[in-house]
Amino acid sequence: xxxxxxxxxxxxxxxxxxxxxxxxxxxxxxxxxxxxxxxxxxxxxxxxxxxxxxxxxxxxxxxxxxxxxxxxxxxxxxxxxxxxxxxxxxxxxxxxxxxxxxxxxxxxxxxxxxxxxxxxxxxxxxxxxxxxxxxxxxxxxxxxxxxxxxxxxxxxxxxxxxxxxxxxxxxxxxxxxxxxxxxxxxxxxxxxxxxxxxxxxxxxxxxxxxxxxxxxxxxxxxxxx
Length: 225
Fold this sequence. Notes:
By secondary structure, the protein is α/β, with parallel strands linked by helices. It has 2 domains: 7-25 and 96-223, 3-Layer(aba) Sandwich (Rossmann fold), CATH 3.40.50.1000; 27-93, DNA polymerase, domain 1 (Orthogonal Bundle). 44% of the residues lie in helices and 11% in strands. It has a 6-stranded parallel beta sheet, sandwiched between helices. Helix 1 (27-41) packs across helix 4 (75-93). The protein is globular.
């Protein structure tokens, strides 16, 4: 982690954002969803077990649950149940956009900086959440786990997002909230800024970050002004 160097000193030409837990407070929502979904499936899915899936794609989430619950858990079985739970929850409670998101997006747009989403969630969910939060128009590309062979922590999502922006990975600044996402961005060769959400960075994660900030509210003054 390079505490003194500024992003402005680098040859950054595009920005890639994770979504869950970074732009929208969906990670907390998913943690709430898994225990009742587990009840529907007849499986003891605890919030602590669900916490181990933060930042992972569907395949990796299935592996975590199956290691604890066995093959009675499958993503195929869980997907429609958690999807409906989330739909009902959002209808009742709406979505919470994280602090500083809109201000940063507006600033980047005024600067002519292309932006992409790089998410381990599905395309259907990501677009639905971004539309609900009125954030989708800011992004020039949306890359999700169902568009690549490997989800995070593999670099595929960020490599494809950079390519879709017409940029080399090292020209892209990635904002991530999870260690899994930081690992993926680092493996892709992107410059990475972490904004921790539910999981705090360990020493290895810190070394893979250009900077760690507490909120996207800090990003404009630290990196773009």
